[in-house]
Design a protein that fits this description.
By secondary structure, the chain is of the alpha/beta class. It folds into 2 domains: 164 residues, Rossmann fold (3-Layer(aba) Sandwich), CATH 3.40.50.620; 90 residues, no CATH class. The protein is built from 15 helices and 5 strands. A 5-stranded parallel β-sheet has the order 3-2-1-4-5, with helices on both faces. The two termini are 21 Å apart.
């Protein structure tokens, strides 16, 4: 299989092309959208933003979308300890949080002296949404992402907070849009436009509030070196984030490894492959190191996740229905999925 000579992406990546030197189109898009000058200017803007927020009145300077995973934990650490802000941590409990992340959420917020709001959606409706999401797109995560966006927006409005931060960024998704949260909501509504069984209250995104409340991706600006992040968190917060295996990639959700397993089964790529490719482009991993990590991950993904049977039971899909869904030719991924823009 053809592979980029600069990063690690193969011809299996959606819409990818290669130049005469074997460098892929995603690398060229990266160079265009994330050159050093732009990144430097973004960082300057963020530093000024943090200084302005520090002077703001009210109980909280900002909201952080806090899953308890390493990226959002690191973002919370930076906001509180490095930039002297008082963020309000907001957690959307998607019913599938791991025992480990529940502990981390409690420990981290107490260690950093940060207030936390956790919201759990109505169980029956949410499980129905997970089922419908899988049936339509083979992606379990649509309503979880929407729930995070919607919850943060509502709490920001209620507390007169005009900015929401996330630990996501260019290493995960290549989001060019000014309002990715609104785009995601419109994308979901377009898929389920004729579905009257879904109660949308937990997932609504307001255009009006998007114009008033800014949604910022901290991973777009700061060096998101995974090894350094884990070392910083484990050293300063007294917890132990995993450093290898599938839990290293997404330790906060029980079904994340199932989503990755299904993606690998259909594409022969892992959902982490795009991130690893970006780490190579950013100089945070060598190409050899990234290829080794991906190969180790693929070995783990060849085995069906233990939690799959329990998940299928919860969302009321039997094994035959599950296999039939996997056979379907589904192409409902949003245009920014996996960071590739035509």
């Amino acid at each position: 299989m053809k592979k980029c000579t600069r990063c690690i992406l193969t011809e299996a990546f959606p819409n990818i092309t290669f130049d005469e030197q074997g460098v892929c189109s995603v690398c060229h898009a990266w160079d265009k959208n994330w050159d050093a000058a732009k990144n430097k200017n973004l960082r300057r803007r963020y530093i000024k933003l943090f200084k302005d927020l520090e002077k703001s009145r009210g109980n909280y300077n900002c909201i952080l979308a806090f899953s308890g995973g390493k990226d959002s934990a690191y973002a919370l650490y930076l906001l509180k300890k490095k930039y002297n802000l008082n963020p309000l941590a907001v957690n959307f409990d998607n019913l599938f949080q791991t025992d480990a992340v529940r502990k981390w959420i409690s420990v981290i917020t107490k260690q950093l002296n940060v207030d936390l709001i956790t919201y759990t959606p109505e169980r029956e409706n949410y499980l129905k949404c997970v089922k419908k999401s899988f049936e339509k797109t083979r992606n379990f995560c649509i309503f979880c992402n929407l729930g995070v966006y919607s919850l943060c927006q509502k709490i920001a409005a209620k507390n007169n907070i005009n900015i929401i931060f996330s630990g996501s960024g260019k290493l995960e998704v290549n989001v060019i849009s000014e309002h990715p949260e609104l785009d995601y909501y419109k994308y979901a509504k377009s898929i389920f436009i004729d579905d009257n069984e879904i109660a949308w209250e937990d997932f609504k995104i307001s255009q009006e509030l998007c114009n008033m409340i800014k949604f910022e991706l901290m991973g777009d600006v700061f060096d998101w070196n995974h090894n350094n992040i884990i070392e910083t968190l484990n050293k300063n917060l007294g917890i132990e984030y995993p450093t290898k295996g599938l839990d290293y990639i997404h330790a906060d959700c029980k079904i994340a490894c199932i989503a990755n397993y299904i993606y690998y089964k259909k594409t022969k790529m892992t959902k982490n492959e795009y991130t690893m490719a970006n780490l190579v482009r950013a100089g945070q991993l060598t190409r050899k190191e990234a290829l080794k990590k991906i190969e180790e991950e693929k070995k783990l993904l060849r085995k069906e996740p233990e939690y799959l049977e329990e998940l299928l039971r919860l969302i009321k899909i039997n094994r035959k229905e599950y296999e039939n869904i996997l056979k379907e030719d589904i192409s409902y991924s949003p245009p920014w999925y996996h960071g590739h823009n035509k």
